[in-house]
Design a protein that fits this description.
Blueprint lengths: L4 H6 L1 H4 L6 H8 L2 E5 L5 H11 L3 E5 L24 H12 L4 E5 L6 H7 L4 E4 L4 H14 L3 E7 L2 E7 L7 H4 L13 H20 L8 E6 L4 E6 L15
Parallel strand pairs: 1-2, 1-4, 2-3, 4-5
Antiparallel strand pairs: 5-6, 6-7, 7-8
Helix pairs in contact: 4-5, 4-9
C-alpha cells in the first residue's frame, strides 16, 4: 500500500515535520483505531484522526443525537437531531476525508460484537461518559493486550492518560469504582481541548513516538489555564491488573 498523489498533497504539512516522512504517514494509513463514543470527546478525536490519515477507524456509539448534545459534540448539527450518532459522524467525516475507512458500530461497548473488533485494532480511545462502560473497556483492553488512551471531562476540567498494562497502571488502579450519576456539566471547548490531546497522543503512538502519557495523568484546568502532570503507578492489589506481570 502506498500513498496516492492526493494523499501526498493532503498530508504534506505532516510529512514536512522533522523525522516524519512518507513511511511514517504509511504507518498511519495502515493503522486501525477503535473509538468508543461519538460525543464531546469523540468528536475532536474522530475529526483529527481522520484528518491525520488514520486508515481505518471503528466508531462505537449506540446513542442518537439530542439537541442538548450540540454545545460540545461538533460532529453533529441541528439537522442531525434524532439520527444515530455514528451515522451523523460518517457524514461529517466523509466530507472531511473520503480516503479513510470508517466502520460504524451502533452498539453499546459491552456488546459481544465489540470484542471481535477490538481484537484487530492497534489502539483504543476511550471517549465514553459512563464509568461502568469505561471500566468494562479497561478490562477488555487488559484481556486483549491493547493500549488505551483514557480521558474524562467535567465543567472546565479534564484528564488524559495512556494505559497499556503491564507497562502502566490500568484505569481501575486509580478509579477503583464509581457510580454513574447522570449528565455531567461541561463547557464545549473543554471537550475540544481534551479530545484534541487524546487525538495528538493517538497519532504520536501510531507514528512510533515513545514520548507518551504513560504512568502519568495530565490534568487540564481550563478555568485557570493550567496543566499538571501527576505520576501514577500500578496498584499491586488492583483486582483487574494486579496479577499481571511487569
Amino acid at each position: 500500500m502506498t500513498l496516492s498523489n492526493n494523499e501526498k498533497i493532503r498530508y504534506q504539512r505532516q510529512t514536512a515535520i522533522q523525522g516524519w516522512d512518507e513511511s511514517v504517514q504509511l504507518k498511519l494509513k495502515h493503522s486501525r483505531v477503535f473509538i468508543a463514543g461519538a460525543g464531546g470527546l469523540g468528536s475532536p478525536v474522530l475529526y483529527y484522526l481522520a484528518a491525520a490519515g488514520i486508515g481505518t477507524i471503528a466508531l462505537c456509539d449506540h446513542d442518537r443525537v439530542d439537541l442538548s448534545n450540540l454545545n460540545r459534540q461538533i460532529l453533529h448539527t441541528s439537522d442531525d437531531v434524532g439520527k444515530l450518532k455514528v451515522v451523523s459522524a460518517r457524514e461529517s467525516i466523509q466530507a472531511l476525508n473520503p480516503d479513510i475507512t470508517l466502520e460504524l458500530m451502533p452498539e453499546r461497548v459491552e456488546s459481544e460484537k465489540i470484542i471481535e473488533v477490538v481484537k484487530d485494532v492497534d489502539l483504543v480511545v476511550d471517549c465514553l461518559d459512563s464509568f461502568s462502560s469505561r471500566l468494562y473497556l479497561n478490562s477488555l483492553c487488559i484481556e486483549l493486550n491493547k493500549p488505551m488512551i483514557h480521558a474524562g471531562i467535567s465543567e472546565y476540567h479534564g484528564q488524559v492518560t495512556f494505559i497499556h498494562v503491564p507497562e502502566t497502571p490500568c484505569l481501575e488502579c486509580f478509579i477503583p469504582s464509581s457510580r454513574d450519576t447522570g449528565p455531567v456539566p461541561v463547557l464545549g471547548a473543554t471537550a475540544g481541548i481534551v479530545g484534541s490531546i487524546q487525538a495528538l497522543e493517538a497519532v504520536k503512538y501510531l507514528a512510533g513516538s515513545k514520548d507518551l502519557l504513560k504512568n502519568v495523568i495530565l490534568f487540564i484546568d481550563g478555568q485557570s489555564m493550567s496543566f499538571t502532570r501527576i505520576a501514577v503507578s500500578r496498584n499491586p492489589g488492583c483486582p483487574r491488573c494486579g496479577s499481571r506481570g511487569q
